[in-house]
Amino acid sequence: MVEHLFERLARERGITVEEMRVVVSARIEKGWNDPDPEKRKQWRRIACAGEIPTPDEWLKYAVEQLIEGGQDISLS
């Protein structure tokens, strides 16, 4: 599922999967270091093995949040 989503996002933007992962990583870093403490607190809810979530860790968290909220996450 992870690669499927990143492949789809990359294809829609006309970039490679690796470039898409760089875009997602940059957004994660921006959120992680947001000057607003409430926003930083939200980002820190994402479980991660390192200092900052990877794109895969972010996606896992996002999907879990959607499922918990009863959202349909079908990508087809």
Low-confidence blocks of residues:
none
Distance between the termini: 11 Å
The H/E string reads: HHHH
Q: Give the CA-based shape.
A: globular
Count the beta strands: 0
| Helical percentage | 55-70%
Protein traits:
76 residues; mainly alpha; 0% strand
Outline of the structure:
The chain is an all-alpha fold and 76 residues long. The protein has four helices and no strands.
Indicate the topology.
Blueprint lengths: L1 H12 L3 H16 L4 H7 L11 H14 L8
Helix pairs in contact: 1-2
Written account of the structure:
The chain is mostly helical and 76 residues long. The protein has a domain at 36-69. It is 64% helix and 0% strand. The chain is built from four helices and no strands. Helix 1 (2-13) crosses helix 2 (17-32). The longest helix has 16 residues, at 17-32. 7% of the residues are buried.
